[in-house]
Amino acid sequence: MLYSVAMPAKRNIGIRLARARKAAKVSQRQLAGWLGIEHSIVTRLESGAIRLSAERAMVIARLLHVSVGELLGEPGAPGGGEPGGGRLSTACLASRPARARGGVGAGGE
Predict the structure, then answer these.
(1) CA 67 to centroid of chain Cα atoms
(2) What is the CATH number of the domain that holds 98?
(3) 43: which of 13, 15, 33, 89 is 20 to 30 A away, CA to CA?
(4) pLDDT for the residue numbered 39
(5) Neighbour count for residue 23 (Cβ, 10 Å)
């Protein structure tokens, strides 16, 4: 079996995604709902089983209030390389869509 250089990179991105999601106090199911995907896809993204697209990385970064650089592990990214290192402010939460804040339409209603 050939060793894939991409696999460790996908796994590291997944680890940073999971950290950012947990720091934002967002469940895999919540994130999946906001993205309109099955929660198993979020699980697979976090485990490195599937690759995170650029488009989805931008949306997730916006929802979790981190930079795309933080998710991708860019050196010198804001937050000292630790995604979701800061606490979400009320202003940040207010900028999420109503579904993302648990408002009308949240939870599949």
Answers:
(1) 10
(2) 1.10.260.40
(3) 89
(4) 93
(5) 19
Q: Is the dihedral of CA 42, 43, 48, 50 positive or negative?
A: negative
CB 31 within 8 A of CB 42: yes
Place of tokens 């488009």: 55
Region of residue 75 (phi > 0: left; psi between -120 and 50: alpha; otherwise: beta): beta
The number of folded domains in the chain is 1
pLDDT tens digit at each of 109 positions of the chain: 444 444 567 788 999 999 999 999 999 999 999 999 999 999 999 999 999 999 999 999 999 999 999 988 887 666 444 444 443 333 344 445 544 544 434 444 3
Q: Is the pTM of this model over 0.85?
A: no
- Token pair of 51 as six digits: 């690759």
- 69 assigned to some structural domain: yes
Phi then psi for residue 12, to 5 deg, are -65, -40
Residue 48 and residue 45: Cα distance in Å, rounded? 5
